[in-house]
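Input structure tokens:
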């Protein structure tokens, strides 16, 4: 069992370790494939040799997150497939093969979410689903750095259309390797998303508005969103939950931290207010913002969400 720790006066269980012999799941990441990225001059979005644009959004960051996961799970063959520069090119080949074999002409002209998985033996698979078109600015951060680093969205909403409705999960989550890394073991997130209230779209909401719920651990710390990284305006700066809270270390989160758009800082559930505007980022959907709705108290100790038995040591 995990041993509770104290942070900001709140009890937080330490992250639980997954057993090395656990089976039945794969490491996963979701990559945006978008021909519009071929117009980008942002070297972060370029191909591994930095000589030409790449249609796969933040490809190297996706490879890095998968590599970190298989390394921590102890999957030697999967690590051998992903590590080094050759691993990046192998991943590109897997993605290109999928596009050439399964994408029809309509799909090739439309952005796709490529769901990439790798198993302990280093075997990969890819599945694709269509994504909505986005302006390059939503993916290349051409207007997000000054907004994200300087102005809270509650002051200036003119830079982007609101595209998220954001709730806070009422049931705490026990951190584990399955919350720190993205895998096909998604029961924690599926449960949290099943608790999102079913509500009609408001008049001020655009068509196709997305729904997100923030995941909170037993200590009351925000860990992450169920499918996004959240950014909160605190004391004149943007902050995102730290790795110690137990959440996933997403690709767009890594970019925001390395680019100095935000810092890591503990965000307590009690500091969030109804109507508070926050930014969200996602490795397939780019950046957007929304407001907190229907903030409620957390569930009791018997209502926690965990990954048992695989995720608990």
């Amino acid at each position: 069992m995990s041993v509770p720790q104290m942070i900001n006066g709140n009890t937080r269980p330490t992250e639980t370790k997954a057993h090395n012999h656990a089976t039945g799941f794969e490491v996963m990441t979701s990559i945006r494939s978008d021909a519009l990225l071929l117009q980008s001059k942002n070297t972060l979005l370029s191909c591994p040799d930095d000589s030409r644009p790449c249609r796969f959004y933040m490809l190297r960051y996706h490879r890095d997150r998968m590599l970190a996961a298989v390394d921590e799970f102890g999957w030697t063959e999967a690590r051998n497939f992903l590590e080094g520069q050759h691993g990046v090119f192998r991943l590109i080949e897997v993605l290109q093969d999928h596009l050439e074999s399964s994408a029809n002409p309509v799909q090739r002209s439309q952005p796709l979410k490529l769901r990439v998985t790798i198993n302990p033996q280093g075997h990969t698979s890819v599945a694709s689903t269509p994504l909505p078109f986005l302006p390059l600015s939503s993916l290349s951060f051409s207007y997000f750095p000054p907004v994200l680093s300087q102005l809270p969205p509650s002051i200036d909403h003119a830079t982007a259309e609101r595209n998220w409705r954001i709730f806070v999960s009422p049931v705490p989550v026990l951190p584990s390797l399955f919350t720190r890394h993205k895998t096909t073991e998604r029961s924690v997130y599926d449960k949290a998303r099943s608790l999102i209230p079913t509500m009609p779209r408001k008049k001020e909401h655009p068509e196709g508005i997305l729904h997100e719920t923030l995941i909170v651990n037993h200590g009351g710390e925000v860990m992450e969103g169920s499918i996004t990284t959240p950014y909160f305006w605190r004391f004149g700066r943007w902050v995102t939950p730290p790795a110690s809270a137990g959440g996933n270390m997403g690709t767009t989160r890594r970019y925001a931290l390395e680019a100095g758009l935000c810092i890591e800082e503990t965000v307590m559930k009690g500091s969030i207010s109804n109507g508070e505007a926050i930014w969200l980022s996602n490795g397939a959907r780019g950046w957007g913002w929304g407001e907190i709705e229907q903030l409620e108290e957390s569930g009791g100790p018997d209502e926690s969400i965990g990954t048992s038995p695989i995720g608990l040591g």
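DSSP finds nine helices and 13 strands in the chain. Residues 116 and 126 are 5 Å apart (CA to CA).
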